[in-house]
Structure formats: C-alpha cells, structure tokens
Amino acid sequence: MASCFSYVSCRNKCYQYSFSRAGLRSSTSDLGDGTVVHCWVPQTHVDAKPTLLLLHGIGANAMWQWDRFIDRFIPRFNVYVPDLIFFGDSHTTRPDRSESFQASCVMKVMDAHGVGTMTVAGLSYGGFVAYSMAAQFKERIDRVVLICAGVALEEKDVEDGIFKVKSADEAANVLFPQSPSMLRRLLQLSFYKPPVWIPSCFAMDYIHVMCRDYLLERKELVEALHKGRRFADLPKIAQPTLMIWGEEDQVFPVELAHRLKRHLGENRAQLVLLKKTGHAINEERPKEMYKHMKSFLCTDAMIRPNDNAKRLMLTSLISPVKINK
Question: Which of 40, 135, 143, 282 has the maximal Cβ count within 10 Å?
C-alpha cells in the first residue's frame, strides 16, 4: 500500500528549517551509558551572551513547543533546546524514569557543549525536569521559569480528586492518545478554548507520528511522576523563580501553583496567572508568555561573572561524551 501524505511529518520538516534558519543546529550526544540525547544548539556559542535552556513538555517534540519563541530569545541568549528522553530523537536503555534522571542527562549534554551557568525554562513536564536541575546543580542554574509545571503535586492529590483523571494510568492514556477521540479529550483538557473540530485523518496522522514511539516508556514516565510522590519531600530551590500559569488549567490546577509559591517563599518566587487560559499557554497565550519571560530574564541578560572561566574548565574536565555534529 502506497504511503499517504503526512501533514504532521511535513510540519516537522518545516520546524527543522525554522530552527536552522534561526541559528541553531541539530546535535546528538551519546552519553555512553545507553543514553542518546538530541539537542538543538547554537551554531556558534557566544561567550558574551548568557545561556537559556528550554525544556519541552509531554506531547510533540521540542520544536513544536518552542518554535514560536526561539527567534525572540536567540538575539539575547545562547539557546539550547533538547528533546527529553523518549521524545524526538532521545532515548535510553536504562530503566530510570525519574525527572532526576532526565535532569542529569540534560546537564551531561550541556557539559559536553562546555556550558557553565544557565537559566532553565520548562513547560509542564519540562518544568519538573527544570526544577530537578535547579535542585541538583545549584551552582549551574541561576534562574528558573516554570510554565504550568505541577511539581508540587503528590500522590494523594489524585485520590483527593483535584485532577480530571482518576489515576496515573488514565492520565497516561490521555497524554499519549491512541485514537482520535482520546486526542480530542486531550485537547479539551489542555485548552481553555479547544479546537471546535479535528478531522479524524489529521488526528490519526498526529498519533502515528508523535504518539506511537516508546509508548510503554512514556507511560512509565507519567507513573514515575505520581507514584510515591510527597510534597513534604520536595526540595526548596534557591534560585529566583518565575511561575506562569493558566487560571483554567485542567491538567495541573492552579492550586498547585499557589502551593509551590508558598513552599518557595514570597521573596524567591513570583506567580503570574493568565485569565481565560488553560494548560497549553505556549499555544493559547504565546505573546503573554514571552512578555513575562522577557521581563524576568532580560533584566540580567548579560554575561555572568566567571562564566567564561567555567566554560573553559568544563570543556577540559568533563568526562568524554561523543557528540555527533
């Protein structure tokens, strides 16, 4: 049977062109432990600019989630955009599914490229990884942006009914839809105003391209976020933190944003709430999201003290990682 035209695959190619045109290049790092991470990196890292690491959420690959923003950030920052493990071209043979493992893998990639300090921004699941990086690598992460990232959740929240789903298994089935009806449910949960109509042919195209690979492993990522999670165990990160949240978020309810702000303290974290906005802020309110990120990040968009020295030190001291340029 002849293969049919895939709009989703075509759009993926367009995003690749968009990232390349913006000044990024595709790079794959073999971490040497059965783990391979793909990342979009600057064609030339400019030491006079700070570094901004953008982490995507669950769903499509990193390009689909950050394409609206890279053109705006690249003039001010060295921008790095990795695919997290089991998304895009990143994968591992190791059994660890924790956000801590994801965080360590991303940092190894940044080490391999000789990056010293950086600011990290994470969308949804990417925010879990960003928070873990800030907790693990205190001297390397200077600021944190969390966009609808429910890091303050705990296992009992599901039992208490604050989510629209009844279990981690149900959440995984929604997040990685395998039918048009389930994709429509995902859109209804993610958007304040979801698309009125999605043709089944487009839905199946998206599912085939974006939701079929590593399905079991991705479901294990969701299970790892939920199982045994206790808010009391969440570390307090010391970095200045911006949280951007949709008031109508049905994936991670805004209650979790207020919980995390109380946890971090009034002076350390600021919370921006967007009215009439759901979970997919990067799609529903990209201009507002960029405006608040720019205000938070660009007041200090200059080279950090000793960053050049740290970069040179890392380049000479890090354990060998094979980078396919």
Answer: 40
The first and second tokens of residue 80, run together, are: 């790095």
In a domain, 218, yes or no: no
CATH number at residue 31: 3.40.50.1820
Q: Sort 275 into a burial class: Cβ within 10 Å, 0-12 / 13-18 / 19+.
A: exposed
The answer to the question of residue 2 being in a domain is no
Which of 240, 237, 239 lies closest to 296, judged by CA? 240
Q: Scan for tokens 């080279």, then name that residue.
A: 303
Q: How many residues does the chain have?
A: 325
Phi, psi of 163 (to 5 degrees): -105, 160
> Residue 262: which domain range?
7-166+230-299
Number of domains in the chain: 1
Assess whether pLDDT exceeds 50 at residue 114.
yes
**What's residue 168's pLDDT?**
87
Q: How confident is the model over 185-210, as pLDDT tens digits?
A: 999 999 999 988 889 999 999 999 99
Q: What are the structure tokens assigned to 6, written together?
A: 């895939």
Give 256-279 pLDDT, tens digit per residue.
Answer: 999 999 999 988 899 999 999 999
Is residue 306 one of the residues assigned to a domain?
Answer: no
